[in-house]
Amino acid sequence: MSLTQNYKLNLIQWYPGHIAKAEKQLKEQLKRVDVVLEVRDARIPLATHHPQIDEWVGDKARILVLNRLDMIPPQVRSLWVDWFKHQGQVAYFTNAKQGQGVVAIAKAAQAAGVKLNQRRRDRGMLPRPVRAVVIGFPNVGKSALINRLLGKRVVESAARPGVTRSLRWVRISEHLELLDAPGVIPLKMGNQEAAIKLAICDDIGQASYDHQLVASAFIDLLNQLQETAGNLLPPSPVYTRYQVDPVMYTGESYLQALAEHRYQGDQERTARHLLTDFRKGLLGTIPLELPPK
Ligand SMILES: Nc1nc2c(ncn2[C@@H]2O[C@H](COP(=O)(O)OP(=O)(O)OP(=O)(O)O)[C@@H](O)[C@H]2O)c(=O)[nH]1
């Protein structure tokens, strides 16, 4: 059963005007670089892929970064590495908060520059540092990655879509320069299933949505995963935390039951707690997507 049969997210922030502006800003950034570091959320590598990215990036070098490696189990990480390899892509996993995997990203970006400079030399031009930009959906860890690459804090948080900023280069090494502002990929509204997963993971920016609906969808998704790939999840993650087992409930009825059990029937509070606990990793390492068979 697909998630979207039961849930229709009513997102009320990304108006078409916002999306168009964000798209324009992103394309402006992409135009100036040689290498694109595309950051996705390791919990949902497919939902954090925008279908038009391939077209926007064109034939520029692209480095695929799956961030939040600490939030999925190591076996799932290996499955993704193999799956992407099968698709002809190298997936680099990072924990931008702690710094794991970041050196490999800088090396991969610099390696792309070697080819660039070979082409420049062939045309009689002087070599120059390779120029890169970090792009991704909101909250996937773009700023954390930029700060880690630089070894210091230069980005507070990503530029909000629609807010035009001047583009500045910051130097990472003599071979690599980075745009100091990450490129924010606008939401693709057409894909409801992806939108729900983005909302569960809080990768949806300032869009507002119904927390109870999103928390219910989260429980249904967990139950589905438990059924199909229980061995890849922590044992009874939700039961362990709340002592109410979701397996016998639909998402919606679970929210009611949990609200009665812990929050004096307050389903809104229950939903918010459930989502916050998941996002903080308090339910354990839970991947919300697995590589398609
Ligand atoms: N657990 C964990 N948290 C991370 C990781 N990377 C980033 N974070 C946290 O996730 C939150 C969002 O990170 P940011 O770097 O601000 O994400 P962003 O993509 O720049 O977000 P926007 O500014 O909303 O576009 C912050 O609280 C980070 O500390 C990671 O690998 N693991």
Automatic annotation (TrEMBL):
<dbReference type="GO" id="GO:0005525">
    <property type="term" value="F:GTP binding"/>
</dbReference>
<dbReference type="GO" id="GO:0005737">
    <property type="term" value="C:cytoplasm"/>
</dbReference>
<feature type="binding site">
    <location>
        <begin position="67"/>
        <end position="70"/>
    </location>
    <ligand>
        <name>GTP</name>
    </ligand>
</feature>
<dbReference type="InterPro" id="IPR019991">
    <property type="entry name" value="GTP-bd_ribosome_bgen"/>
</dbReference>
<dbReference type="GO" id="GO:0003924">
    <property type="term" value="F:GTPase activity"/>
</dbReference>
<dbReference type="Pfam" id="PF01926">
    <property type="entry name" value="MMR_HSR1"/>
</dbReference>
<dbReference type="GO" id="GO:0006412">
    <property type="term" value="P:translation"/>
</dbReference>
<comment type="function">
    <text>Required for a late step of 50S ribosomal subunit assembly. Has GTPase activity.</text>
</comment>
<feature type="binding site">
    <location>
        <position position="183"/>
    </location>
    <ligand>
        <name>GTP</name>
    </ligand>
</feature>
<protein>
    <recommendedName>
        <fullName>Ribosome biogenesis GTPase A</fullName>
    </recommendedName>
</protein>
<keyword id="KW-0963">Cytoplasm</keyword>
<dbReference type="InterPro" id="IPR006073">
    <property type="entry name" value="GTP-bd"/>
</dbReference>
<dbReference type="InterPro" id="IPR016478">
    <property type="entry name" value="GTPase_MTG1"/>
</dbReference>
<keyword id="KW-0547">Nucleotide-binding</keyword>
<dbReference type="InterPro" id="IPR027417">
    <property type="entry name" value="P-loop_NTPase"/>
</dbReference>
<dbReference type="InterPro" id="IPR023179">
    <property type="entry name" value="GTP-bd_ortho_bundle_sf"/>
</dbReference>
<feature type="domain" description="CP-type G">
    <location>
        <begin position="23"/>
        <end position="187"/>
    </location>
</feature>
<keyword id="KW-0342">GTP-binding</keyword>
<dbReference type="InterPro" id="IPR030378">
    <property type="entry name" value="G_CP_dom"/>
</dbReference>
<comment type="similarity">
    <text>Belongs to the TRAFAC class YlqF/YawG GTPase family. MTG1 subfamily.</text>
</comment>
